[in-house]
Amino acid sequence: MSGVWIIVRQLLRFGLYAGVQVLLIGQLSLFGLGWCLLYLGFVLFLPLRTPVAVQLLLGFGMGLVMDISYDTGGLHAAAGVLLAYLRPWVLRLLTPRDGYDAQDSVNVHQMGYQWFLVYLLLLVSLHHLAYFFLELGSFRHPLLTLSRAGVSILFTSTALLIVQLLFFPVRRGRE
Amino acid sequence: MKNLVAFLLRYQGIMLFVLLEVASFYLFLTNSSYQRAAFLNSANAYAGAVLARRTQVADYFRLGELNQQLLADNARLRQQLFPPDRARREADSLPVGRDTLGRLVFRQLRPKPDSLNIKSQALSTKKPDTLLLGGARLPAHNPTYPLIPARVINNMLRSVDNYLTLNVGLADGVEPGLGVVSAAGVVGRVKAASAHYATVTSLLHSKSAVAAKIKRDGTFGSVIWPGEDYRYALLDNIPRQNRLVAGDSVVTSGYNAIFPEGVLVGVVESFVKEPDKNFWTVRLRLGTDFSRLTYVYVMHKPPRAERDSLEAAALAPEPLPARAPKAASAAGVKLGGGGGAGAAATGAAVGAAAGATSAKPAAATRLRPGTQPTTKTRPAPGVKPASGTRTSAPATGQPAAPVFTPKRRLPRMPG
Known about the structure:
The complex is a heterodimer of chains A (about 180) and B (about 425).
Chain A: H1 3-23, H2 40-44, H3 52-70, H4 75-93, H5 108-111, H6 113-136, H7 142-167
Helix pairs in contact in A: 3-4, 4-6, 6-7
Chain B: H1 2-10, H2 12-29, H3 45-61, H4 63-81, E1 93-98, E2 104-108, H5 118-125, E3 130-133, E4 136-139, E5 147-155, E6 161-166, E7 179-182, E8 185-193, E9 198-205, E10 209-214, E11 220-224, E12 232-236, E13 249-252, E14 264-273, E15 280-286, E16 295-299, H6 305-315, H7 323-330, H8 338-354, H9 359-377, H10 379-395, H11 400-412
Antiparallel strand pairs in B: 1-2, 3-4, 5-6, 5-16, 6-9, 7-8, 7-16, 8-9, 10-11, 10-13, 11-12, 12-15, 13-14, 14-15
Helix pairs in contact in B: 7-9, 8-9, 8-10, 8-11, 9-10
């Protein structure tokens, strides 16, 4: 797989996630409290060996697109950069006993439910907490903000799990 | 140098992270300031186009909700626009006279709120004591002929028998039988009144007839509405030998005391002489535009019981005191007495010519004022005998008009 193909593929993913988020998912709201930030899937499901700098830039770019769409200035970008920065740490934390294989990717079928759910919930929770408290700019209304973050975490995680189950290749076992 | 590169590579992640976070926070914290580059918000051309398209598509899925919203908005706006219908009974300006060029002069009744000059305000809110309604100057505060301003709240144009609804009623002094005029001319006659509303038989009614005359030479006729077009009516009973001019004003004659003399009914539009009739068929363009009727005035008639009884006594060879007022009051939809009087007069003429003095024909002719408008526009039963008697009048050697008009004028003159 040539480098150009990888870049084109990632650009297509970028456009797809951003488009689905802005055009469809951004309209939804759960209990009037939480939103689904599906675009996180772009950063979360990047290849495992993506360089840190590229991850950060991609997270920043995706966040900026969301900021432009939702008029939030740099809020999504800040949270997105944080997510991209934390992702390698979480990956390192969750390293299997014998390390990652070359073919490994963030895939629920390959890595198993346990690994995937911990990875997903941990990163999405960190992102959402950062996002909602940054949005408020203070810790004034902790209960409301926490409930919004919690509902959003639920929503986003469920949506991303569904995306994984529907669109990611089923290849059991590692070759 | 080598060490520096190694250091940068070693810590590229944390440095880029800090850099990007600083940039993000800068953007976030300056989000509300006006100095922002216009590109970084949803108003930029690309994001704007995408979001507009999304709204277009998304709106399609909530058309019902949008419609409900619009309906609610419209209802609220309409409520602001239209005050309750007991308000605004009076036009904001009233025609009070004509200037030297013949144009209507209006007086503003409610000054605009920004006119702060108290003196001019007091002057302009003073109500005029005469109004120019249908070209006739009518006293606005005459206790015997009080004008009751009203607003048309319902109007019909397309039926055979059209009615209006006004927002005045018995509480305002409206009674059944009163005449209704607008600034442009005759409108109709009150048919029934409740406490706060009144139904008016429009001039556009198959049984309505208005006693009228041509203003130029005073020829009497009666205006009826043949149906079809709300802009035109017919002027009946104008003798064939009279000269007519297109554009002549036709005004009320004042004979039936519903309308005072001189209120405009319409303008002669065209006239044809039909071979089997002694009268012109005159087409009138009505002065009142019924399609845009808003403010009208209900007019009180002066006491006419004495005049009615006098006329009844003069017409009746035998005293039938109970029948005549009953017939007159039964004429619920009759707008004018012109046609009725004409019929009564011809009936009397026939009676005199034939020498038939039996009570039955006399009673029949006396009842004509009430029944005649009915028979007039429903041509089959009533008109035929009437026109028959009229055609028979010249056959006896008398010219039609001289016999016709004096006979009709004679009993009405004392009133």
